[in-house]
Automatic annotation (TrEMBL):
UniProt source species: Rubroshorea leprosula
Entry-linked InterPro entries: CAT-like_dom_sf, Plant_Fungal_Acyltransferase
Gene Ontology molecular-function annotations: acyltransferase activity, transferring groups other than amino-acyl groups
Protein name from the UniProt record: Uncharacterized protein
Family: Belongs to the plant acyltransferase family.
Length: 211
């Protein structure tokens, strides 16, 4: 979709990075995975990078695009990769490092990072006033590189909530070109979430009183 929105200049290159969780990979082979990474604070991430000409992305079938993404990602989803990444970070301390796509931006064509949020336990976060009905850890990070983050819908009906931080032209194309797939996150949708949570808590309270 991002490539098609840039079809006016098919000589440009579209770039994408995918955030890979390293906690699960570093815990491979461990009998107690929770305790293995329990002492680690913060993210353990790798962000593999891929790029293709916009013209190819438009003309080739979606299956070809999926294979290209799988190809540049496959080396970053192993335990060995993250062990090597730890060594690399230690060897370059305290020099700061940024991802390749963030440094280059979208000067040569569309560029964005895809971050998975399906396992982020939003419903388990509680600061003392109850778990949230809805939440996200997406934030605009200041550069020209786009950011796409998907999370499961609090409706628990199989839907995704997709957060998109992209140039206006690309967002407009997504909203109009694939309106049958992506629906705007409206107040009505959030209102339904609030009432679903309220009814669930009410039923839970009634159940407790009957015991």
């Amino acid at each position: 979709m991002v490539a098609i929105s840039t079809a006016g200049d098919s000589t440009k290159t579209s770039k994408m990075e995918i955030v890979v969780d390293g906690r699960t990979r570093l815990s491979e082979g461990c009998t107690d995975k929770d305790s293995q990474m329990g002492t680690c604070f913060g993210n353990v991430l790798s962000i593999p990078f891929g790029s293709e000409k916009v013209k190819e992305l438009i003309e080739k079938p979606l299956s070809w695009v999926a294979e290209e993404v799988h190809d540049f990602k496959k080396n970053a989803v192993t335990k060995e990769h993250f062990l090597g990444l730890i060594d690399w970070v230690e060897a370059h301390r305290p020099e700061p490092a940024v991802t390749k796509i963030y440094a280059s931006g979208n000067n040569e064509g569309p560029a964005f990072v895809v971050s998975p949020g399906q396992r982020f336990p939003v419903s388990k976060v509680n600061f003392g006033w109850g778990p949230p009905t809805f939440g996200s850890y997406h934030f605009p990070w200041g550069g020209s590189t786009g950011y796409v983050m998907r999370m499961p819908s609090p409706m628990t009906n199989g839907d995704w909530v997709v957060y998109v931080h992209l140039p206006v032209r690309q967002v407009e194309f997504i909203e109009t070109g694939v309106a049958d797939v992506f629906k705007p996150l409206t107040f009505d949708y959030l209102f339904i979430l609030i009432w679903c949570k309220h009814l669930y808590n009410l039923r839970l309270e009634i159940f407790r009183r009957t015991l």
